[in-house]
Every structure is written in C-alpha cells, then in structure tokens.
Design a protein that fits this description.
By secondary structure, the chain is an alpha/beta fold. The protein has a single domain, classed as TIM Barrel (Alpha-Beta Barrel). 35% of the residues lie in helices and 29% in strands. It is built from ten helices and twelve strands.
Amino acid sequence: MLTKRIIPCLDIKDGRTVKGVNFENLRDAGDAVELARLYVEQGADELVFLDITATVEKRKTLASLVKRIAQNINIPFTVGGGISTIEDVRLLLDNGADKVSINSAAVKKPETINLLSQEFGNQCIVVAIDTNWLDNQWFVYINGGRTPTDKLTFEWVKEVESRGAGEILLTSMAHDGTKNGFACELTAQVSNLVQIPVIASGGAGNRAHFAEVFETGKADAALAASVFHFREIPIPDLKKHLQDKGITMRL
C-alpha cells in the first residue's frame, strides 16, 4: 500500500503566510521560511507554497522567497501562483521548487498543461482545482476562487490527467478554512475518475478528518494550513494517530 502524505500549505500574501475562511478574511499566520523549517522538523512529507494573489494582481510568484524556503528544507516543495509559461516554471525550478501548481492558466488555456508536462515531465506538474457546488453540480473556479467558470469539475479532472498533469490538488471552496472536515464524497468521486494522485484540500479541523479523507475520500495526500500554522494539530501526533488506524504513513 502506498504511503499517504501530509502536506502543510503556506498561502503567501505580500511575503507572509496567511489563512482565511472560504478564501476570504485572511489573517497573518507567520513567517514562511520559519514555518517551512518547522514542518520539516515535524515530519511533513511535502510542502505547498501558493502565492494566493499572484494571478489576481498580475504578478509572478516571488522567486526569491521560493529560493529562501528551498535553502531551508529537504522535502519536496510545490509552488503555485501566477504560473502560465515555460519561463515561469523554469525560474521556480531553478530557485529550488520540485513541482509547480497551475490553476487559472490551465483553465483559460488547457494546452498549457500539455506544454509544461512535455517540457518538464508530468512529475513536475500539479493542476490545482478550486471547485464549488452550484446548481446541483461541481463547477471549477479560477483567480483564487473569485471567478466561476462553466467547466464541470468531474470532466475537468479527466481532461487535466489526459493532458499530462502528474497530480491534482483538489480544494472544495465551501469547506476551505471551516474545520468541519474535507469534502470526502467529492474527493472519492475524483479519485475514482483518475489514475494520478489526488491531494485533498479544504476543511481539516481534527485528526479524524484526515483519517476520513484517506479512508472514505480515497485521497493520496491531505493538505491543510491553519490547523498546522496555529499549532492545533502537531504533525507527529497526527501521523501516529493515522498509523494506529491502519493508514500507512512515513513516520
């Protein structure tokens, strides 16, 4: 059985780590480099760094911050925010990122996934999908969750896989920051539709939620932010709890 992964997410705005609820009402959660170093010490399997306003503000991800974080960690590191070209990806990989996450650029121009996967290999390309329930269907949203699209989530996940995505980072916007649990039914449906790993995001509030998204949601990895940033769930305790429940973890 493949080892399940625990992934802290550092949402970055103006160089600081922030966290909100349903993508709004952001509050400061600390220094990104210090948090990254802490998570390595605690046994996180990977890190995700998202410059959450890069797309909206038409900026590129802060390569210098990526470099500082990469110099302080020794686990895989995914970077996202405003990435749309081969040059964007090369800059981030050159500064220490292991993978990149694309979202809005992929939705607006799906062939971007093919282009980047062919250039760098699909192991480098994570497609982030922000989704919300509307009119009895799951729809894809872009621009940091601000803009709805007409893309249906279940169709989109199959397309991104066929175009060369190596992983899917799936966020239920309605669950984000609520601490009421992951969208397990949604995650399971997506996991059943694709062969590539699915990272579940949005809603972690306690240790049981992580167990549920691995068991019921069939997720390959679980991503969370505030429960880690504000020391509500220590990663070593979480991993031991999951291991005790028969979920394979790297301890």
